[in-house]
Amino acid sequence: MSSKNILICDDDEGILDVLELILEETGHTIIPEKNSLNVRSLIEKKMPDLIILDLWMPVLSGDQILQMIRTTPAYKHLPVIMISASRDGEQIANDHFASAFIAKPFDYDNLIAQVRKLI
What we know:
- It holds the Pfam family Response_reg.
- Keywords: Phosphoprotein.
- InterPro entries: Bact_response_regulator, CheY-like_superfamily, Sig_transdc_resp-reg_receiver.
- This is Response regulatory domain-containing protein.
- It is a single chain.
- This protein is α/β, with parallel strands linked by helices and 119 residues long.
- The chain contains five helices and five strands, in the order βαβαβαβαβα.
- The longest helix is centred in the first third of the chain and has 12 residues.
- It has one domain: 3-Layer(aba) Sandwich (Rossmann fold), CATH 3.40.50.
């Protein structure tokens, strides 16, 4: 299995750090980002193989970013895992065509399984 680029966007630095640690162990290159406004340019520059996106973030929310991804022909097929502690998170993720949804706090084995399934 070749190393893939995974873009993780979450405004919570603790969650970013944990996800980065877990997923680096699976042999992938992690692109952590706290500011959701930078996601579009990161997608264009780094062309990630997978995006993990927090739903509730300041300025641009995860569903707004996902909508931008799904309506941009160049990367509308990018796999996106939406993560959220919100009770409505799964519904919102499904409404915006996320590839998968994982509730916070997450089960690490489930997270790794979802990542493997999508890339």
